[in-house]
Amino acid sequence: MGTLGQHAALFAVSSAVFIGALIGAVPANAQSTDVQPSERSFMVSLRQANSWLVPISKEAPARTTNAGISNAGRDIFDAHSRLDVDLLKAATELGVVLPNDVSSEHQSLIDEMAERTGDNHDRAYATIVRQAQGGLLVMAVQTRATTPNTTIRTLAHQTVQMLIRTMTVLENTGLVDQSAFELVTAKAQVNAVRVIGQNIEPSDRELLVLLTQHSLWQKPASRESSDRARDAKVRKVAGQLASEHTQLISAVTEAAGQIGADLPAEPTTEQKSWANAISSSSGDELDRMYANLSRAADGSLITQVARARATTKSVPVRVAAQTGLTLLLKHMLLLEGTGLVKANSLQMTDAPAIMQPKPNSSPPPQPDDSPTSIGFITGIIVLVVAGAGTLWLVRAIGHHGEHRR
Question: What is the C-alpha to C-alpha distance for residues 215 and 247, in angstroms, rounded to an integer?
Fold first, then answer.
């Protein structure tokens, strides 16, 4: 059947990028006016994907007699068209320049797809679109988890929700080739159907273990916080998270049973320390500790879940990953809605660390609003982060509690 053009490459978001003096001092729902390189890359990649997914999806219903592909084409055309409108609006608001023309590579892909008909077209369309959307999903999720810019966060959130749905629509056609589940910059071999073995992929087992451990600490911590939190909004959010982790545990347990994977009975030692930190807090400190630790933990996990959702060839694991991705996305939004999540909790690309405060340690300096001060403290914080990892996170979350101790 031949090969198709180059697909959208994955853009890695560096875990070393932090937002200077705003980290730990500014609520997550406060707007950041700066656009970071990784955020700009996400917006450009989304624009480039829309530039070729929209035209080939518009033509899909006319080139197929398959009802599934026809419906998928209309759905993806509508979804990416609406998303492109929102993207351009956000870019104008933020002063981000986006490409207006289709690249020569993507134009070649559009032209090649225009020559395909029937089953040849259907399998090619399902495969290349699904692969492109998988790569875009990982980038959108990581942007959603880490950006302090509320405009970009909203755009990334909408993108993730749309991709979760349209990827499933494509997969349900039964025409997606196995090459679509690889996050690589390569041409899809739509005529090479690969035989999947019965062995469990290590990445599938790892995903189920990670989701289980996440629920094993966050469900009881949420249940406790729903009873003990001072803020009524925190109590409500914590109660909802506790309830919905039952759904996640059920989905993961079912997948593990189908593929024969063993699941842990306890969270990790580190996760136990997060739960203990919440249990040992009270009042406003508990509210802040619960909201920030939970949001940081969700953000550190969701990109791994998105990658599994995009790449796993196991249908049971894919279902569990989709459940996890949907719930984590929802939980992040709920936690941010408490108004207590600080910007540093959005920047976690590794799991949050809990450290006991030193008796004579002084609280972190509070930045003023002057550009000079912000630039100075930005440099200091980046150096501290590079040398000390996530120690400053807990100080930012619990520095008020540190005074009380």
Answer: 10
A 10 A CB-CB count for 167 gives 23
Among all chains, which residue has been given the structure tokens 């953000």?
Answer: 299
What is the distance, to the nearest Å, from the Cα of residue 365 to the centroid of all Cα atoms in its chain?
31
Handedness of CA 28, 334, 134, 264 (dihedral sign): positive
Count Cβ atoms below 10 Å from residue 404 Cβ, excluding itself.
10
The torsion of the CA quartet 305, 295, 273, 395, rounded to 10 degrees, works out to 130
If DSSP codes are grouped into helix, strand and coil, which group holds residue 363?
A: coil
Nearest residue to 313 (alpha-carbon basis) of 202, 164, 201, 206: 201
Q: What is the mean pLDDT of each run of 10 residues along the chain (405 residues)?
A: 35 29 44 78 94 94 93 96 96 93 88 89 93 94 92 96 95 91 51 38 89 95 95 96 94 94 92 93 93 93 93 93 95 94 68 40 37 37 37 42 42
Model-level pTM? 0.74
Is residue 11 a contact partner of residue 138, using CB atoms and an 8 Å limit?
no
Greatest CA separation for the chain: 73
What's the CA gap between 87 and 99, in Å, rounded? 12
Q: Is residue 132 a contact partner of residue 7, using CB atoms and an 8 Å limit?
A: yes
